[in-house]
Amino acid sequence: MALLQYLGTGRRKRAVARVFLRPGTGKMTVNGKPLDEYFTTYTSRSLVRQPMATTETADKFDVLVNATGGGVIGQAGAVRLGIARALIEFNLELRGKLKGAGYLTRDAREHERGKYGLKGARARFQFSKR
């Protein structure tokens, strides 16, 4: 018997999230931990739950996520995009709702590398005329 699941990949800054939607009761797991344990802030948890709430599918699927790279908010954004893409794989009719809410747009702002001889990507040392 084949396992029924829907895959979606999300990226944000340096973070990558592989999201698997499986028919279930609404349990969310990120890297083997419950969602509330992995994402400790309310902001990041609500960011992750947005696509499921918009499409009213929160109690229909168990969500399994493998997230790597980046920081907490970057990973949360990547998970949100991954969930939205997986929901479209499940039902193409949800695309209009998700696109209207802006959950299918990949945030193209990338991490900028630090420049040699400087403190970071843009920061300069203070100029002294004398």
Structural features, described:
There is one protein chain. The chain has helices at 35-38, 42-55, 72-90, 95-101, and strands at 6-12, 15-23, 28-30, 33-34, 61-68. The protein is of the alpha+beta class and 130 residues long. Helix 2 (42-55) packs parallel to helix 3. It contains 4 helices and 5 strands. It has a single domain (6-101), classed as 2-Layer Sandwich (Ribosomal Protein S5, domain 2). The termini are far apart. Helices cover 34% and strands 22% of the residues. Strand 3 (28-30) and strand 4 (33-34) form a beta hairpin. A 5-stranded mixed β-sheet has the order 1-2-5-3-4.
Distance N to C terminus: 77 Å
Name the CATH class: Alpha Beta
Q: Classify the helix fraction into a percent range.
A: 25-40%
Topology pattern, helix = H, strand = E: EEEEHHEHH
Supply the helix-strand structural class: alpha+beta
Give the averaged pLDDT, no decimals. Answer: 91
Radius of gyration: 18 Å
CATH architecture: 2-Layer Sandwich
* Count of helical stretches: 4
Give a short account of the largest sheet. 5 strands, mixed
Strand order of the largest sheet: 1-2-5-3-4
CATH-assigned fold name: Ribosomal Protein S5, domain 2
Oligomeric state: single chain
- The number of distinct structural domains comes to 1
Strand content: 15-25%
Shape: elongated
Tally the beta strands: 5
Return residue spans where pLDDT drops below 50 for at least 5 consecutive residues: none
GO molecular function: RNA binding; structural constituent of ribosome
Pfam families: Ribosomal_S9 (PF00380)
Protein name: Small ribosomal subunit protein uS9
Keywords: Ribonucleoprotein, Ribosomal protein
